[in-house]
Design brief:
Chain B: GO terms for molecular function: cyclin-dependent protein serine/threonine kinase activator activity; kinase activity; zinc ion binding. Chain B: One of its GO terms (cellular component) is transcription factor TFIIK complex. Chain B: This is RNA polymerase II transcription factor B subunit 3. Chain B: It is found in: Nucleus. The complex is a heterodimer of chains A (791) and B (370). Chain A contains 33 helices and 21 strands. Chain A is globular. Helix content of chain A is 52%, strand content 12%. Chain A is an alpha/beta fold. By secondary structure, chain B is mainly α. Among the domains of chain B are: 81 residues, Zinc/RING finger domain, C3HC4 (zinc finger) (Herpes Virus-1); 91 residues; 63 residues, no CATH class. The radius of gyration of chain B is 44 Å and the shape is flat. In chain B, 8% of the residues are buried. At the A-B interface, helix 17, helix 18, helix 28 and helix 33 of A face helix 3, helix 4, helix 6 and helix 7 of B.
Chain lengths: 791, 370
Amino acid sequence: MKFNIDTLPVLFPYPRIYPEQYEYMCDLKRTLDAGGHCVLEMPSGTGKTVSLLSLIVAYQQHHPEKRKLIYCSRTMSEIEKALAELKALMKYRTEQLGYEEEFRGLGLTSRKNLCLHPSVKREKSGSVVDARCRSLTAGFVKEKKERGEDVEVCVYHDNLDLLEPHNLIPPGVWTLDGLLKYGEQQKLCPYFTARRMMPFCNVIIYSYHYLLDPKIAERVSKELSKDCIVVFDEAHNIDNVCIESLSIDLTEDSLRKATRGVNNLDRKITEMKSTDAEKLQNEYAKLVEGLREADEARNEDAFMSNPTLPDDLLKEAVPGNIRRAEHFVAFLKRFIEYLKTRMKVLHVISETPPSFLNHLKELTFIERKPLRFCAERLTSLVRTLELTNIEDYQPLQEVATFATLIATYETGFLLILEPFESETATVPNPILHFTCLDAAIAIQPVFDRFSSVIITSGTMSPLDMYPKMLNFGTVIQKSYTMTLARKSFLPMVVTRGSDQGVVSSGFQIRNDPSVVRNYGNLLTEFCKLTPDGVVVFFPSYLYMESIISMWQGMGILDVVWKYKLILVETPDSQETSLALETYRTACNNGRGAVLLCVARGKVSEGIDFDHHYGRTVLCIGVPFQYTESRILKARLEFLRETYRIKENEFLSFDAMRHAAQCLGRVLRGKDDYGIMVLADKRFQKKRSQLPKWIQQALEDRYSSLSVDQAAAAAKAFLREMSVPWTRAEQEGVSTWGPEDLARHKAKMEIEEIRRLEEEAINANGAIGDVVMEDEFGGDEFDDTVLAELDV
Amino acid sequence: MSRAAQRSGATPSKRLAEDGDICPVCKSSRYLNPNMRFLVNPECYHKMCESCVDRIFSHGPAPCPIAGCRRTLRKAKFRKQTFEDIQVEREVDIRRRMAKTFNRREDDFVSLLDYNDYLEKVENFTWNLINGVDIEETEKTIAAYAEENRREISRNESVAAQEAQSRKARAAEELELIRLRREDARREDELERREKADMRRGIINKLATTDGDAASIAREGQRVVLKKSLARRAAIDKQRDNDPFAASTENGEASSGLIFKGLKKWVPPAPEKPYDPFGGWSVENEYFVLQDHYDWDWLSQAQTDIRHTAGGYDVNDYCARALCEAFSGFGVFIEDEVAGRNVGSAPSIATAAAAVTGSEKPDVNMDDIF
């Protein structure tokens, strides 16, 4: 359907639109017009992606400057979905407009998914594919080939050089599969096509990491211009992604490998000295000049400022004591040896970067400055030595990145050494966590660089947490509710068992037999009454295991077994995917199944249980993080000190966003229905932290139920849902055709006019009305005054 | 020394890898003696167990028991090995010595490039010493340098020591601050909890003793709680803003014994001059001199009349204006100007005037006119 938002003509590829989609688009447009950032929460399964894409594409095509869209999503499947949506949208636009627009939309993913080289694509691990690809496609390999040396190259990659660099692929939207097929036909490398075409695309769809991870962002995203529109979809976890991208864990094993890497480098340097000393000399001369020349290559404006490489560092020359290759190698050796000695300590250490640097200097005479240049210097050396088997140097690179990070940032990071894996372990297995505590560091360049950043997801409540944590300002923060023709989901909070005993996964009572039995009863009740699939979420693997074994002892599993097939998620991803497959088969052709999984596991994020795959979700216990973890403690402290976010506030926010994610798994659209059960006493008080759309549906009378009451309510709900129902009933209420939209617009206009009129009247009669107004709003007025007086 | 160094570089590391826990002298292993500790002597870096050191070197200096190494070692010099790799251990010792001599700082140099060259040179010397290249010569150069620059070296040393001290003080202060803040947060939580409990008890008491509407009492109670917490938060914010410690950390400065190097001296900005609309171009009256007093009888009345003076009227101003107007036509020769305009054939009067004034008074800026 076609409609206008203000003056912007939008083509929406479906005949009907949801009211919240329309509202969402209006707010998006306002954000784009204002040129700022926004946080939007829209219920899952209400077509967030398609409304986003159709609005932004319309915006692009309408405005002459054609701002580029960078759409970041989290998983491969979501990227593919978005690409498919985009393709459908563009097809629809062509049909409606009657001509094809000059438009390119591409998705980018790792080499592993896009490789066509006959032997390389058969490799299983992504890093091996990367390394082998590099060894076939690096610049010097081609030079060697031109010199007539016998080296292996990749035909797919080299064919690209024969084409015009801005026209490697015809306009249109290319899904990943489509790209692969086209590549196979034309014998072109899909990966490099996508990467090189990025500056010429209207829409780019890729994973968060290409923008947030400094190591990749530098290489992939540097040519993007400032007026791009950046969208982070499914962004409820974005702070953790930011933190992970800047955190490094070192183990003894990785240090050992790093040492091996350094020794290899040493050997290579000696070799090169005897054969091709000139090259080393060239590199040396360049480094004397500084990184300036490299800086020129990364054009001021186009360069994505990189957290590990601050601007001032680029303008400086490499310090003299690591300019020569052999000096640098000795330097690295010394640094690694130092880390090894640090690892030998048998008690937990947590220290700040400045204190680490001090100690380092006392012991090994390594100054802060050369340390900062470590990563860049290593890259330069690897390039000079023309190393092909990069994967061998992975641990070394990690150490170098660590060095650069620790010397660059004084605050926002913490070094934690844990010599033992667990409290009870006696054999030391030290891990050096270099953790980033401040999510804002990684994402700051994105906010600084791009004028419009849109953060959106199905579950982001409370919305103001994200601007606080990521340290940015927003134009619009909004949470949309779900308009429903019938009440299609039933959220409930279960606080007691049938015996009126409290249920909770709180630490003190979580292993009480009575609590476990009550949870067991809850499970059996819902397995009895639910048709098809039931999904159960536990706060942790540990708790899940203990509770399952207790259920086994109590005979609860035997009862459940009568009604449903029982499947369990494990940390192993292969096992889990097998379990999922079995679960789906069972849901398709039997009494259904129950899947027991973990609220922070793989299943809870990104796997949909639409329709009969999930009719009930049970959230057993509040999914708090493991609070004894030192990293978490450090982060909490940091949040408190820097952003004034209290510990409990953050923990509860984090728990509730995961709970909301779990609940959102079963409802994937407006014709879907499902029961959501939150089974913990503590949920009663945390209701206000759920997303608005769930809160709205959670009635007061369902906010503190016992197991039997919940079962009765669920039965009634399911009976209601089983009444035959057509889509026609939705029309005009939860889906709008063009007429409905027009009606809505007219209504909005009338309201707007009324509002303006009222304002005008108010302004005129303000003086006369004072007394009256006071009478009306007396209570509130009083309140605020009192509060102010108190202050 | 070079021979020894080379050998020690090659052999011990290999041995370490093979049998890390066996003493090369007495061949006892960790299995036999679980508390065995290894020591090295920075003369030759051969490691041996503690008991061997005691046995061999207790009675004064003795040659190293490792075959082929004839260095004389003393017990006092033996110490624990910090690094696993013995080569690095040795390298660090050399570096320690070098760092003592070559302690130039970046601001001793004119440009960064010079400093980097210096660093590289020092690194080269160190490299030579570590790998045993031209040791004698290098040592000689280093000694000469140390002799020449003794004063600078000691100065930089003291600066470095001072810096270290201030850094330590600052770190301690920061630690203390963090501890205080943590304590504060804890106390705050505690207070809040207690207040909440009190309030709840209060409400329950009220509910029990009075017989008003239960809902309204509860609401009232909640309002009081909210207000109190707001007030408390504001108080905390205020306190934080006033906190002298907090302010000092934000500025990143500590109060005592801290010397910042490379800081430019703060120069107070020159006081701003009053605004001059003509840009320094003043008009002097060259055709008359203003007198203090004029005997114009029609004016004397006004001069003394309180009704005029109260309003700020000054007869002198009147006189000055009257005279200025009277003479204002002098010195302007219209024929000359018209002729000049034709000769210059300037496109506009403004440019001509600007050109004239510009040539006469250099401080009138031409750009300003447009």
